[in-house]
Design brief:
This protein is mostly beta strands and about 220 residues long. The protein is built from 1 helix and 9 strands. The longest helix is centred in the first third of the chain and has 22 residues. It is rod-shaped and about 155 Å long.
Amino acid sequence: MPRSTWTAGRRGALLGASAAVVCMTLTACGNTGDGGYVAVGPPRPSATAVRPTGSVTLVPLDDPTPPAGSKSPAGGATSAPAPAPSSTTGAKSGRSTTHSPSPTPTAVPTTAPATPAALTWGEPARKATDHRWCEDVTLSFRNSGGTAVRSGTVTFGTHIIGALGIDWATIGSAERLPVPIAAHAREDHTWTVCVDAWRVPLGTHIETRDVSVEWR
C-alpha cells in the first residue's frame, strides 16, 4: 500500500498517521475480495481527507439497502431476490398449477318404456273347401305396439246365403289367436271355419264376413 505524507508538523504527522490507521482498519474490514462498504460523511475539520485504497464500494448512509449480490457493511453477503417460480399454466400469477383431466361423464342408458300392444287386422280372405258348410278364412294381423300380444280370441260371423242371395242367418264361432305376436311384427293365419251341415241345405252356401278380435 503506498504511503501518504503530511507537512503540517508533528501534530499533522500524528493526525495523518491516525487517519492512515483508520483507513487501514476500514479497508481491512470491508475488503474481502468482493468489494466492501465504507460509510462516507463530511470530513473532520482537523483531519485531511484520505483517499481509500483497494476495492471499495461507496454507499450513501441514507440508502441502507446494498446492491443485489454485494456484501453488507458487516461483511455478510446479501441475498439476491429469488427468481419467480415457473408456472405451467399460471404465467401471470406466478403460481404453478396442475390441472387434472375432467372425468368423462358416464352415459346413462335411457330406455323408453315399452308401449302396450296395438293389434290390427285386415279383411278376411275366404276360400271354399270340399264341404259347402266349411271354408278357409285367412286373416293378416299387425302389432304396431311395443309389447307382444300374448293371448286372444277371434270371433267369426258366418252368413248362410240362400240360392236367391237371401241372407238367412249368421252363425258365430270362436278361434284362438296365433300368439305370441311380437311387437312391430306381422302374422298371417288361416282357419277352417265350419257351421252345422244341416244349416246349409243343398243350393245354399256360407260366407264368413264378420271378424271381431279380443287380445291381451
